[in-house]
Amino acid sequence: MNQKTNQRTSKSHTIAEIAAKAGVSIPTVSRVLNNRPDVAPGTRERVERIIDECGFVNNRVTNTLRKGSSGIIDIVVPGLDTLYSVEIVRGVGEVIERTGLRLALSTTNNALQREQQWLGKVLEGATDGAILVLSRGQSRNLDELHRRKIPFVVVDHRGELGTDIPSVSATNWSGGRAATEYLLSLGHRRIAVIDGGSSLRCSTDRVAGYRAALEEAGVAIHPEYIRPGEFMQQTGYEQTCMLLELPEPPTAIFAGSDLQAMGIYSALRAHGIAVPNEFSVVGFDDIPIASMVTPTLTTIRQPLVEMGRVATTMLLRLIAQEPLDSMRVELTTTLIVRESCASLPPV
To answer: How far apart are CA 212 and CA 207, in angstroms?
Structure first.
């Protein structure tokens, strides 16, 4: 079988998968891909959403890219020392692999100076576009990329973004609310939360969801249960130790990230407190380690790989000068129930 036949088989198989997921025929998917008008609006919206989720790249887009293309897509992430970044990069790579383009990966180690250095390299060299996973809030670099007319998409934005900034994120507020509601359903009323930084939009949204769930349940919000920090294991450990020293410590903690939850586990273990029999923990992200620790971690799944896929699909459309369906995409978070939570034991 020659190369062209292989490419046709792969493309047909991908379209067939999209059709199956959307519950439509293969010709319907083809009509959506080719912007044909004879598709019902609801059907078109559903098919386009699944196309984005699957990271499918239309041949018309890749053909446009090959005309005068540098062949390089840049991505910058805070670092590769956490599975958070690795999962997003994996999603980006899955889509880039289908285009024949190359992925140039840079890390900032959470340092603004490193971010500025990356920008300088991008502006000096040839690139088709960039995907940015920023460690802090809105970067001044976005304005410079705009000015130079370099297409880019921000993933999991951590600050306020203008309406003209294309971005992909998750439903952080809903995730925070779902985590807290689950703990409330188990009888917990003294529920703490550890944030990832008050300057980060994703963190403040999660805490806002936590607050909303408590308010709707008529449960008092105790300021001492809302702990500051970063999305790191050390934060989880330190803040849990402080919470346990309170006159009336919590019986459950909603962690701002799974890495924080690992620190919470360590602190509870050091104090001889068993999870979940004596204390419940909920994380956020659902990185692979969440299902490997003991006990396995109940968490809010943030679709990190899918976020990478969707961002890359959006970027390719921007490079090909195709309009986006939306400048801001929010993917759904999901509560994943495992073993780290239990009903509050009777007093």
So the answer is: 9
Burial 104-131 (b: 16+ CB within 10 A, else e): bebbbeeeeebbeebbeebeeeebbbbb
281 Rama class: left (phi>0) / alpha (psi -120 to 50) / beta: beta
CATH superfamily of 3-54: lambda repressor-like DNA-binding domains (1.10.260.40)
Nearest to 82 by CA among 194, 229, 234, 226: 234
CATH 3.90.1300.10 fits domain 172-302: no
Kindly report the backbone phi and psi dihedral angles of residue 56, in degrees, each rounded to the nearest multiple of 5, phi listed first. Answer: -70, 135
Within its chain, how far is the Cα of 80 from the centroid?
Answer: 15
Mean pLDDT of the chain: 85
Tell me whether domains 68-170+303-331 and 172-302 share a fold. Answer: yes
- Residues 269 and 272: their CA atoms lie apart, in Å, by 5
| Interval 72-115: pLDDT, tens | 899 988 888 878 899 999 999 988 887 878 899 988 876 777 77
CATH superfamily membership of 68-170+303-331 = Response regulator (3.40.50.2300)
Domain positions in the chain? 3-54, 68-170+303-331, 172-302
**Each residue of 182-223: pLDDT tens digit?**
999 999 999 999 999 887 888 999 999 999 999 999 999 999
**CA gap 29, 40 in Å, rounded:** 12
Encode pLDDT of 157-172 as tens digits: 766 677 788 999 999 9
